[in-house]
Amino acid sequence: MSDAARILLVEDDFEICEVVTSGLRLEGHEITVRTHGAGLVEHVGETAPDLVVLDRTLPDSEGAELCRALRSAGSGVMILMLTARDSLEEKLEGLDAGADDYLTKPFALSELTARVKVLLRRAGHAGPGGQVPSASTLGPLRLDRAAVVADVDGTPLSLTATEFELLAALLENQGRVMSRTELLKAVWGYDFDPHTNVVEVYVSYLRRKLREATDAVILRNVRGFGYTVEASDKVDPPEKI
User: Which residues does the UniProt record annotate as the domain Response regulatory (predicted)?
Assistant: First the structure.
C-alpha cells in the first residue's frame, strides 16, 4: 500500500490551511480543504478520505459534535482534531467524541506530519518496508491488521480505529502485561500527557465490547503494572470465602 493518502482538512483559518496543505502535499498526500462543517458527514461518506484533520471550532459547527455525527453515521475514518483549547478536560472530551488524536494550536508542522503518519499507519497504511503485521488470534478472537478486521468466531467486532489498534497491541503482546506507557506509545505513537486517563477510557470501551461478544477472552487489569488479554480459562477463579 502506498504511503500517500487522501486527507480532508476542515479548517477556517486561511494561514493554517496554507501551511498544513503545503506541508502534507510535500509528504505526497492529496489534500482537500473545507472551511465549514455543514454537510461534512455526507461529504466523508461520498469521498471516503483516509484521514480528516478537523478544527474544533468552526464558524458553523463544533468539532466534537461533528466527530460524534461521523461515528454515529458509522464512519471509521481517522480524525485528528486541531484546537486552541489545551485543558485536559477538552482533550478527553474530543477523544471521547470519537477523535483519534488531538493537537493543540499553535503547533509545529513537523509534529502534525508525524502524527498524521502514525494515524495513517493505524488506519492500515503500510509502514517502513511496506509490510503490514499478520493476523493475531486468541481463542475465538481473531484480528487481521492487513484486512483491518477483528472478529469472534467469524462475527465482526464493531471497533473504532483506536480500539482496533489497542486490541492489536494487546494481542501482539500475549503472555505479558503492557504498561500504560507502552500502550500510549504503541497506540497513540508518542508520549501523551502522562496524567491523562485516555488509556483507561479506551480499555473500558474495548473491554465492554469484548464482553458483549464473548466470555472466552478477558482484558485484564494487573493493578500497578498494566493490561493484558487472556483466554478466560487461564484466569484463576476467585477464591471462595
Answer: 6-120
Cell of 186: 504503541
The answer for residues whose C-beta is within 8 angstroms of residue 121's C-beta and 6 or more apart is 127, 189
Residue 128 region by backbone torsions, left for phi larger than 0, else alpha for psi between -120 and 50, else beta:
beta
pLDDT (0 to 100) of residue 58: 94
Q: What's the topology of domain 149-231?
A: Arc Repressor Mutant, subunit A (1.10.10)
pLDDT at 70 over 80: yes
User: What DSSP string runs through 178-222?
Assistant: BPHHHHIIIIISS---TT--HHHHHHHHHHHHHHHH-SSEEEEEE
Buried b (16+ CB within 10 A) or exposed e, 217-229: bbbbeeeeebbbb
CATH dotted code for 6-123:
3.40.50.2300
Least confident piece of the model among 66-70, 147-151, 158-162, 234-238:
234-238
* Domain ranges for the chain: 6-123, 149-231
- CB atoms under 10 Å from CB of 172, counted, come to 14
pTM over 0.90: no
Q: Rounded CA gap, 190 and 185, in Å?
A: 5
- Cell 499553535 locates to 106
Distance between CA 194 and CA 236 in Å, rounded? Answer: 31
